[in-house]
């Protein structure tokens, strides 16, 4: 999950050129991709599967239906699609039993798996709050996500790690505040830190909240992943390993976002090796040469071959899901290009 990125007119022309060819190739190979056996020379016998997040094709504002995204992702020939609880109000206003049943029928139409169900930040943002009532509200939102995930038939529920509520940036989503574009004279990169901020106390609260989430996930027969973002309690695999050491439960895993870890100047293949056996899901995206903008797959410098090599070394067998978050330009062509690339690298 990330901020939007600008796409120049030249970039758009580059993306559009050959779009019809890529889309046609995706359509021709769609059924072949779904029927392709996952057994291969991959260590352990089963290669990772190739997916996309639904929000590549819809906004993260509340109440957005994934139906069109399911149709697009399924038609392209992906093997899986991640779905998301976008806001707390969507628990009752959108994710009703009839809606879930209709979504499951649409998934079955394309033989799409749901590798994990994400609970977006607005539904669980108080997990690091110093107030017990706010933490309980976040846990209630998380458990509602577990119930939805169970009905969708996914094995994993996921959240982006929350950040300390004592930290405030210029926008509502702190991870997006990682640079100052065109700074004015004397302007500094700044995050407000509340008086009395106690990192160890916040960390202890975070650990207890994650334990509470994990307990609820397991009660619904689910595994639980936490995703890395900048400025959160878990910005990288090293932080995840500290979290795992405090909990030590095999039902807790990491959802590694290779773009967000690259943005922080960690080489994603090394991050894969660090997280190792704890990796349950991967978010894949491209990034520009300055490691600051998430550009369309094929326009950036992400070393996808090295990532796949590292995943093979740690015997990863989960999903590799493209998450480019609806950039300006032709996202369908980008996803078709990603699918073709992953099929080649995983062969």
Features:
single chain; about 350 residues; alpha/beta; TIM Barrel; eight-stranded parallel β-barrel; about 15% strand
Write up this protein:
The protein is α/β, with parallel strands linked by helices and 347 residues long. It is built from 13 helices and ten strands. It has helices at residues 9-16, 19-35, 67-76, 90-93, 97-110, 121-124, 132-152, 199-219, 237-247, 258-263, 268-275, 304-313, 331-346, and strands at 49-53, 80-85, 117-119, 156-160, 167-168, 192-193, 223-227, 252-257, 279-284, 319-322. The longest helix has 21 residues, at 132-152. It is globular. The two termini are 28 Å apart. Residues 3-29 have low confidence and may be disordered.
């Amino acid at each position: 999950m990330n901020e939007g990125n600008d796409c120049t007119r030249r970039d758009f022309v580059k993306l559009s050129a050959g779009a019809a060819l890529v889309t046609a190739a995706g359509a021709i190979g769609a059924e072949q991709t779904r029927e392709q056996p996952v057994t291969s020379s991959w260590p352990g016998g089963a290669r990772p599967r190739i997916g996309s997040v639904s929000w590549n094709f819809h906004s993260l504002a509340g109440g957005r239906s994934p139906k069109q995204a399911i149709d697009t992702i399924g038609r392209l020939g992906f093997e899986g699609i991640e779905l998301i609880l976008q806001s707390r109000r969507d628990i009752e206003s959108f994710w009703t039993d009839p809606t879930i049943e209709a979504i499951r029928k649409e998934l079955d139409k394309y033989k799409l798996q749901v590798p994990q169900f994400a609970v977006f930040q607005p539904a669980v943002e108080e997990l690091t709050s110093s107030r017990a009532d706010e933490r309980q509200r976040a846990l209630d939102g998380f458990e509602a996500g577990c119930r939805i995930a169970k009905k969708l038939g996914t094995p994993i529920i996921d959240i982006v790690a929350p950040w300390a509520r004592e930290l405030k940036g210029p926008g509502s989503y702190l991870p997006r505040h990682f640079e100052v574009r065109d700074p004015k004279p004397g302007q500094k990169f700044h995050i407000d830190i509340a008086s009395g901020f106690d990192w160890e106390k916040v960390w202890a609260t975070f650990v207890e909240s994650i334990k509470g989430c994990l307990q609820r996930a397991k009660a619904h027969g689910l595994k639980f992943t936490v995703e890395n973002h900048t400025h959160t309690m878990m910005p990288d695999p090293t932080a995840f390993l500290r979290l795992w050491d405090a909990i030590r439960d095999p039902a807790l895993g990491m959802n590694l976002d290779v773009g967000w870890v690259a943005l922080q100047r960690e080489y994603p293949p090394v991050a894969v090796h660090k997280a190792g056996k704890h990796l349950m899901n991967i978010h894949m995206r491209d990034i520009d040469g300055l490691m600051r903008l998430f550009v369309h797959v094929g326009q950036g410098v992400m070393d996808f071959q090295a990532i796949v090599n590292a995943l093979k070394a740690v015997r990863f067998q989960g999903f590799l899901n493209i998450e480019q978050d609806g950039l300006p330009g032709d996202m369908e062509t980008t996803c078709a290009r990603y699918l073709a690339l992953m099929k080649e690298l995983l062969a």
